[in-house]
Every structure is written in C-alpha cells, then in structure tokens.
Amino acid sequence: MKIKTQFQLSFMMFLEFFIWGGWFVTLGTFLGSNLQATGAQSAMAFSTQSWGAIIAPFIIGLIADRYFNAERILGVLHLIGALLMYMMYQSTDFGAFYPYVLSYMIVFMPTLALVNSVSFNQMTDPAKQFSFVRVFGTIGWIVAGSLISFLNWDSTESVAQGMLQNTFLMTAIASAVLGLYSFTLPKTPPKIDKDEKMSISNILGLDALSLLKDRNFLLFFVASVLICIPLAFYYQNASPFLTEIGVENSTFKMSIGQMSEVLFMLLLPFFFKKFGFKMTILAGMLAWTLRYLLFAYGDSGELVFMLIIGIALHGLCYDFFFVSGQIYTDTKAGKKFKSAAQGLITLATYGVGMLIGFYIAGIITDMYQNAEGMHNWENIWVYPAGFALVVALLFALLFKDEKIEYQQ
User: Fold this and answer.
1) Kindly report the CA angle at 344 between 342 and 348, in degrees rounded to 5?
2) How buried is 335 (Cβ within 10 angstroms: 0-12 exposed, 13-18 middle, 19+ buried)?
3) Are 146 and 252 in contact (CB under 8 A)?
C-alpha cells in the first residue's frame, strides 16, 4: 500500500470517528439534562443506532457491492448526515429531536461498513495493515472528546446552560467535510457486475448470510449479538454516570479509553498472531466484565482510580473484539461479498445486540432511579458485568480456534 493511500485512508478514519465521538459520547447527558428525557426515552434515542445498523446491510448489499463505488456512497451519506445533524442542533425537545436522530443513524451506520470496505480494498494484508489505518479513527474520537472538555461544554455549569447542543453543530461541519473529501478517496468499484442475474437474496444483500453455515462463524455471530447487550449499557450510561457522581471534564476522561485504544490497536496484530483469533476475542469479552465491576464499586473520591482503569480498558474491550472481528469477517467473506459481510457483522453488533441492550439498559436504569432523579449505579453496573461473563464462558467452551487465512 502506497504512503499516499495510507494517508488518505487514515484521514478518512479520523473524520469518520471524530464525527461519531463528537456527539454520541455526551448524548445521554444532553438528553437527560437538556431535553429532560427519561431512561426509556434515552434508550429510544440510542436505539436509533441499532435501527441504522439493521438497515445498513441492505443498503450496502444493494448498492455498494453492485452498482456504485463505495467512496461515492460514503460521500453522499455524510453530506445528508451533515444536514440532519444541523437539524438536531436546532431541536429543543425530545419529540422534535427523535426523528432527526433516527434519520441520521440510518444514513450514518452504513458508513462504518463503507470505510472498512474502502480500506480493505486497498490492502494486500489487512490483518497487518488495517489496524495502522483504523487507529486514526481512534485518534479522531479522542480529539473530539478532548475538544468538548477543552471548550468546557461538559462542565456542570455548561451542561445546565445547554452548551452540549454545540456538539451537534461541530459534528455537522465535520460531516460536511468528510462528505466532500470522500469523493477524493481511492476508487472502490462494485465487486459484482450489475448485469449479472440476481435473485431476491442477491438484491437485498443477503448473500453474506451463507457465512452462517460455517459453525464457527455462526458462533461468532451469536456471540457478537450477545456481547453487545452489555456494551449498550456503556454507551447509554457512562456519561450520565460520571456526570451524576461529580466527575468533572468527564468527556475528556472518557477519551482515555480511546487513548488506550491506540495502544491496543497497535498491539493487536502481534497478539492476533501469537495467540490466535479465539483468545483475542475472549480477552475482549472478559475485559467488559472487569470494566463494569470497576464502575460498580469505584467512586469519584478515593476510588476514582477504579473508574479511570475501567475507562482505560476500552482499548482492550473494543479492539480485541470489534476490530479483530472485522478482520475475521473479511477473511471469511471471499472476494465478492466483502461489503455485505461487513454490513452483516454491523447488523449483529450495532444492530440486533445493541437494540436489545439499549432496551434492557433503559428499563434497569429507570428501575434504580430514585425520586430525586439520582441512580443506584452499583446495582445498574452489576447486570452487564454478569452477562458479559456468561457470554465469555460460553464462547470459550463452544468456539473452536482456527487459523485465519484469506480466501482468493
């Protein structure tokens, strides 16, 4: 891969995750503090990510793999996203906000598969090269979170004044930039001739479902769905949790997780090679259990170090499960259906699993809320810790380790 191409892909990843991290991290706090949303309403807002992920495989399978270059679709979706994000910036109540966030997630979630497809298309050895491109996405997320805290939008006083609203304007601008930039990216043409005779399964991009005939991939797919149930608790509750217990500059502190992600992203190829796919995935699962236990029993006083360690585990949690899973999926897909396969795993993780997870997290969060609007966070965090442990144990027992090889 040429240096110029690596730079182009790296900047694409930087913007992609700057956009996501620029508003999604503080969404829970914004909803509760500025739109007076309940736990159930917050779950509805976060679940739009899942609906977008469920629709994503159909968009990718129908368009990216068959008719148009992936980088062009990426550009169009981000330009539409910029407009929707601006409308979210102008919303003043949950009823007005929800349709825009739902529409935004429907156009944003397919872009996660598209940036992977554009990247993998340029690489000769994704298992070695992908992490060094993807790490710039992590850096983008860090920069977004650090900027929010640097501008003091997430302080107690600023949250009360509605300053978190500015995150949507910042993200709208970044989305417009990536939309235009996408048209300069290396060409990623469709893998299938548009004149090729297609069945209904072909048209809907369901070809990748054939991967589920592989027992190991089926187990990985099911584990991906299940582990994302506890993951939803983190996305929905981490920012409100830290804000409620009095942790200042919580958005910057949460970016420590992405800082650790840089380290673990660089370590991933070596761990992957030495210990194999199964142990890599298993390490990521067990890290989720440990993180939630640290959240349950830490506090903003003498035990704040437990919260920091829990946040810092994000690199291990995310990279060793999601990034290695993306690589594993790419090896299983074969040449024709790489985009559809990435869309399928997005469906499993950010779609079905987190849709269930957000619903459960909303119920449990409201269950442990008192009359003053405060929460019993210890009880809340124990639930995802236990669930992640059960999933890890089942995966360890049922999944047979295998050597990762690319199909030609």
Assistant:
1) 115
2) exposed
3) yes
User: What are the angstrom distances between the C-alpha of 364 and each of 119, 288, 306, 359?
Assistant: 39, 18, 23, 9
- pLDDT tens across the length of the chain (408 residues): 788 889 999 999 999 999 999 999 899 889 988 898 888 899 999 999 888 888 776 766 666 666 788 889 999 999 999 999 999 999 989 999 999 999 999 999 889 888 988 998 888 888 778 878 988 998 899 899 899 989 989 887 888 898 999 999 999 999 999 999 999 998 888 766 656 665 555 544 466 777 788 888 899 989 989 999 999 999 899 988 998 898 888 888 888 988 887 888 788 888 877 888 889 889 999 999 999 999 999 988 889 899 999 999 988 988 888 888 888 888 777 666 666 777 677 777 878 888 899 999 999 998 998 877 788 999 999 999 999 999 999 999 999 877 765 444
CA–CA distance, 365 with 295 (Å, rounded to integer): 14
Q: What is the CA radius of gyration of the chain?
A: 20
Cα 311 to Cα 51: distance, rounded to the nearest angstrom:
27
Distances (CA, A) of 113 to 11, 76, 192, 346, 358: 16, 15, 17, 7, 21
- φ/ψ (deg, to 5) at 348: -65, -40
